[in-house]
């Protein structure tokens, strides 16, 4: 059962070593990611699953799975927390595949927040995983009696300004605003109905992970609904950065 979720963006610039001289510019964003993870920890989950895009196929990563920022010129390796409270050992899990960049950023966020509330695994999905498959994966993750929490990582439009990575697309800001409203209201039905063609056009790599969250939250229809809080909604580099907590 899904008991909580944190939604965070996944730009490598969140990692100070990657951001270098611009590290301080994202301090507020990092702080809001910590707040979202604190809200998830307060829900008392039995397990946390990181959900991010960037994989060629749906890939499950076990406890202690590693990712690297060498592709960004930084010799930094990060790992999913190997154990929750009470210690334990790392579990390489179903695959030894390295974490894609979004999930590596998530691993850094968890370390930055000092996460030790529950064991952590990850699922990486293709950017173009169909909505129906995303929703089904979310339902699978939330199945059973375990108190499950998600850390969903991905960014909004990368077309918010002329200097943005995707140049300017006037559809980008309204798209991000609609996602922000859905996250603020914990509206899983609105996330499930996201226009994936538009999401791809404006470069929103969070679309597939958000729809996995929608599928997981949809299983709660017979129980008390989750409440949402939007903690961050900016586009400092022409890319939409959204942080939310559901609990």
UniProtKB/TrEMBL annotation:
Alphabetically ordered keywords of this record: Signal
Signal sequence range: 1-19
Annotated protein name in UniProt: Extradiol ring-cleavage dioxygenase class III enzyme subunit B domain-containing protein
Species this chain originates from: Streptomyces lonarensis
Organism ancestry: Bacteria, Bacillati, Actinomycetota, Actinomycetes, Kitasatosporales
């Amino acid at each position: 059962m899904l008991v909580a979720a944190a939604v965070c963006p996944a730009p490598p610039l969140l990692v100070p070593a990657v951001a270098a001289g611009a590290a301080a510019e994202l301090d507020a964003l990092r702080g809001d990611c910590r707040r979202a993870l604190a809200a998830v920890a307060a829900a008392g989950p039995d397990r946390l699953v990181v959900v991010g895009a960037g994989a060629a196929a749906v890939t499950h990563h076990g406890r202690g799975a590693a990712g690297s920022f060498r592709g960004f010129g930084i010799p930094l390796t990060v790992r999913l927390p190997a154990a929750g409270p009470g210690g334990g050992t790392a579990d390489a899990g179903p695959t030894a595949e390295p974490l894609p960049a979004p999930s590596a950023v998530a691993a850094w966020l968890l370390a930055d927040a000092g996460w030790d509330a529950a064991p952590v695994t990850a699922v990486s999905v293709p950017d173009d995983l169909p909505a129906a498959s995303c929703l089904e994966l979310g339902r699978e993750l939330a199945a059973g009696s375990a108190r499950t929490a998600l850390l969903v990582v991905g960014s909004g439009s990368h077309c918010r300004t002329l200097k943005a990575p995707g140049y300017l697309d006037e559809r980008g800001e309204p798209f991000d605003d609609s996602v922000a409203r859905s996250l603020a209201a914990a509206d899983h039905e609105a996330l499930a109905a996201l226009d994936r063609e538009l999401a791809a056009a404006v470069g929103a790599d969070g679309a597939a992970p958000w729809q996995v969250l929608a599928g997981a939250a949809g299983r709660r229809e017979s129980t008390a609904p989750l409440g949402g809080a939007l903690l961050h909604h900016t586009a400092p580099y022409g890319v939409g950065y959204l942080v939310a907590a559901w609990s």
